[in-house]
Design a protein that fits this description.
alpha/beta; about 40% helix
Length: about 325
């Protein structure tokens, strides 16, 4: 038995990342219906919009699904109340101190998972009482850790420190990558970029097509003074780099970033002035596919790689 499939009562140890502007109920329910764990991304939703997505997800799937909640969310109390009221059984938290809300959620019978970028934070999350850890490497798209630790090195270091189930994230879009991280000690994987480029993703078609055009070196982490984020190198990214040449203050960076820049890029499809968050692994994504096809392909790839691995003889 696998620790992750047992914990969440799912068929495959594949979790869909709760990506802002990508992870609505259509994506979450499709992943859950295909044997993985779908997550609604609360980070880009007003409280009542989240409630609507949870209710629609319950109608679209009878399988387990969860909600991803950034702890820095301004309406965090209202968001968590909605999650409890709507009977959501799984919550992934990120971008904040897990001690703040883990006990509250656990008391309500909710499984809590926290996303970290270092073994230090993994230990703190374990001490806070979470049920599992997502360790996300520097390859990942969107908001990232300051430590710049890659998935290949992060997973064994976190595995060495914790006793609870471990989910690998960052740079995972294939079954082979899934097998590699599990060999390193992960019990399952969280997949973001591959699902962003799916039929059911709520992202704009312009953004989905932009993902297909990403090549090696086309993304980079920037805005570390505010919150590190991996972006496609479009005009907005270049504007940020030009501003860095003038040694800007945090206020000047915030002013350039402005408001709703991510929504503008990923949800509204402005590929020039929008913030386009995607992982390095986008370089191997060449087609927008339905979720069920993506998961079937990952599992087939995983099984084939496992057979090949057994054939190695040293």
């Amino acid at each position: 038995m696998n620790k992750i499939t047992t914990l969440f009562k799912i068929k495959y140890p594949i979790i869909q990342g709760g990506m802002i502007w990508n992870s609505g109920y259509k994506l979450a329910s499709a992943v859950s219906n295909s044997g993985g764990l779908g997550l609604i991304g609360a980070g880009s939703m007003y409280p009542e919009v989240l409630r609507e997505h949870i209710q629609k997800c319950k109608k679209a799937t009878s399988k387990p699904f969860g909600v991803n909640v950034p702890m820095l969310y301004p309406n965090i109390e209202e968001i968590l109340k909605i999650i409890v009221d709507e009977g959501v059984k799984i919550v992934f938290t990120s971008a904040g101190n897990p001690k703040t809300w883990t006990s509250y959620l656990k008391e309500k019978g909710i499984i809590v998972v926290h996303v970290v970028s270092s073994s230090t934070f993994a230990l703190k999350a374990q001490e806070a009482g979470v049920d599992a850890i997502v360790a996300e490497g520097f390859e990942a798209g969107g908001h990232n850790g300051r430590e710049e630790t890659t998935t290949l090195t992060l997973i064994p270091m976190v595995k060495e420190k914790i006793k609870i189930p471990l989910i690998a994230a960052g740079g995972i879009a294939t079954g082979r990558a899934m097998l590699a991280t599990m060999i390193l000690g992960a019990d399952g994987v969280q997949v973001g970029s591959r699902f962003a480029a799916s039929v059911e993703s709520s992202a704009h078609e312009n953004f989905k097509n932009a993902i297909l055009n990403v090549k090696e070196g086309d993304t980079q982490v920037t805005l570390k003074e505010l919150a590190p984020v991996r972006l496609i190198k479009n005009k907005f990214y270049q504007d940020v780099q030009h501003l860095y040449e003038k040694c800007p203050t945090k206020e000047e960076l915030s002013q350039l970033l402005g408001r709703a820049r991510a929504k503008r890029g990923m949800f509204e499809g402005d590929l020039v002035e929008g913030e386009l968050e995607i992982g390095q692994i986008a370089g191997v994504i060449h087609e927008i596919k339905p979720v069920n096809a993506i998961i079937e392909e990952m599992i087939a790839d995983f099984q084939a790689a496992k057979v090949e691995l057994i054939q190695f003889d040293f």
